[in-house]
């Protein structure tokens, strides 16, 4: 199916971003495979654990772990090429994001959960991989303060649910959501759209002492 | 019920502390809502996942997620006021801590788990929200080296279990535990009570090389 | 049983490494007990949650939590002695690593999971304790860029599975795996064996801007 092929492209792209992050922290091959796998399938794993949806995806399909480990090690060999072709990876990563969101939404729908939880499942699937990657590599999670990333997952989930709600056939809803979500992400990147940032400087950080405010 | 009202006050207060932390890291609105939600309901989620108590609380009650997201975004608008009224938030947060502990204890009791696990469930519910908030915002978790925080959760859980054990009615046990736990936290803050700190400086950190000790 | 005794030695050793890490971050007694417990039983907990293997080990056996808490607090009293005898702790920790791997493997086998997942269960059990300890204490996880640590878990799991596959009796397979895994770890430490490290420096980190590569 289209969704499976795009999913494999998505986890491969995410695994490669994970490997690059691991390389910046001078990890060994095992660390590279680990961070690559976490970046690629950590989102789906977190979703399955939170929803209590067992067995977790990659336990049913261990071949996905093989793909992410191989992609991770392979990335160490072609790192300069990966960086030169960053635009390509942003495209692949964006496809992955929308595919992850649709799959996350699908899992929650199949469990009979309410729409708000389906949307949250989509967001968790889409962003937790990158979030865990950044936590392990000790960077402030990018997904929480850069570009429209989580918002794209939110939009894709909302669009997909709305289409299903109006009785559109599943495969057509998937294609429309893919096109819509991918376009939004590309447009957001092109015009550097982002959500408003909340920047708060506290003069005095002693807890328990009231401060004068800003 | 009293417990539900106090729970909603507690998650709102925790969500606001999460939003302030997110603001210190210059996160966007999505990041603010995410950290606010994690701070407020991460503890209960961690407890449910560890105990295998599905479905997780907020999946049954998605309205709690709505509350934390709204509280998070609202905090960005009134941040200076929040900081000026820090004392109020410490009071609300303390109520939340005791309520979370009682609820965590209750869940474990209803699952028929032994008392030690009930106490651990209370502590996890009480502190994991703040722990995850600090990990995501890359601060050394406050709950692990400041004031009597986890100890209050421990005390509240122990008091509640003891009261139930002596056949006190549930609603009365809850009120006594709330009063006792809240008082302990307030007294601990007033007199800056804290647990002994273990401070260890290692001269030589190379693993595998025995050092001379302190 | 031999495995239970070695398991208790393993969690005690891991709890002591956790307590030392907590001491470096000036945590209070609760923090020490918490990090000690996470370091010792976090790996098994993560494995059980990922596999959906409920109840989690220490909920069935709360006495393990007692052991790790006591070991943690006790370590604060004898920290200089622990550091002087670091070699001893590396030996105990290595035994723990192999025991954790065998137990992790065993759990996955008993759930009827495929070999690759058994190996991953072994690795998760072996390394997640140390990983979580380092995340909470805000250090780049040692297990991801030092020595043959995860590789020993991988080797032990592979050896154990192979032996069982050839019809070797379980208790004999355990003893051979213990000897083999422990020897590999000791040899790796003695000769400073390690996996190749992937070190990647990116000149320009702005996302979205293609760079010239290295």
What does this structure look like?
3 copies of one chain form a homotrimer. Chain A is built from 9 helices and 2 strands. With 214 residues, chain A is mainly α. The first copy, chain A, has one domain (2-190). The longest helix of chain A is centred in the middle third of the chain and has 25 residues, at 86-110. The A-B interface holds A 49-52, 113-114, 116-117, 120, 131, 135, 138, 140-141, 143-146, 149-151, 154, 194-202, 207-214 and B 19-20, 22-32, 34-35, 45, 49, 54-56, 59, 62, 65-66, 76, 79-81, 83-87, 90, 135-138, 142, 146, 189.
Main sheet overview of chain A: none
The total domain count of chain A is: 1
Overall number of strands of chain A: 2
Uncertain stretches of chain A? 203-214
Distance between the termini of chain A: 55 Å
Mean pLDDT of chain A equals 86
Proportion of residues in helical segments of chain A:
over 70%
Structural class of chain A: mainly alpha
Q: Give the C-alpha Rg of chain A.
A: 18 Å
Question: Which percent range describes the beta-strand content of chain A?
Answer: under 5%
């Amino acid at each position: 199916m289209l969704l499976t092929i795009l999913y494999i492209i998505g986890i491969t792209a995410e695994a490669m971003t994970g490997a690059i992050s691991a390389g910046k922290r001078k990890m060994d091959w095992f660390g590279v495979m680990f961070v690559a796998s976490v970046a690629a399938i950590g989102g789906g794993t977190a979703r399955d654990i939170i929803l209590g949806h067992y067995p977790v995806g990659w336990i049913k399909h261990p071949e996905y772990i093989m793909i992410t480990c191989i992609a991770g090690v392979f990335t160490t060999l072609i790192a300069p090429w990966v960086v030169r072709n960053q635009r390509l990876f942003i495209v692949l990563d964006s496809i992955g994001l929308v595919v992850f969101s649709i799959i996350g939404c699908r899992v929650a729908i199949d469990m009979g959960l309410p729409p708000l939880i389906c949307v949250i499942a989509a967001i968790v699937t889409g962003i937790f991989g990158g979030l865990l990657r950044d936590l392990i590599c000790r960077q402030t999670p990018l997904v929480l303060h850069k570009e429209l990333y989580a918002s794209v997952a939110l939009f894709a989930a909302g669009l997909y649910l709305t289409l299903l709600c109006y009785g559109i056939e599943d495969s057509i809803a998937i294609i429309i959501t893919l096109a819509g979500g991918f376009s939004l992400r590309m447009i957001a990147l092109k015009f550097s759209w982002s959500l408003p940032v909340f920047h708060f400087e506290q003069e005095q950080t002693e807890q328990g002492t009231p401060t004068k405010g800003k």
